[in-house]
Amino acid sequence: MAKATTIKIKLLSTADTGYFYVTRKNSRTMTDKMVKRKYDPIARKHVDFREAKIK
């Protein structure tokens, strides 16, 4: 069976609050780590979220 093109990833907050989003990305076109600027409700501001592995 073929390998899936989209994989699930966890976007972990860089504000060290432990808050995260779960999203998908195309692993063939986006080979580097994903970084998004999103809202962290614990820190109550927009911060960078970096890609981490889902355990």
What does this protein structure show overall?
By secondary structure, the chain is mainly beta. The chain has a single domain (6-52), classed as Ribosomal protein L33 (Rubrerythrin, domain 2, Single Sheet), CATH 2.20.28. It has no helices and 4 strands. It has strands spanning 6-13, 20-26, 35-40, 45-52. The chain has a 4-stranded antiparallel sheet with strand order 2-1-4-3, with no helix packed on it.
Distance between the termini: 23 Å
In CATH terms, what is the architecture? Single Sheet
Total number of helices: 0
Helix content: under 10%
Total separate domains: 1
Determine the CATH topology. Answer: Rubrerythrin, domain 2
Number of β-strand runs: 4
Oligomer: single chain
Short description:
The protein has a single domain (about 5-50), classed as Rubrerythrin, domain 2 (Single Sheet).
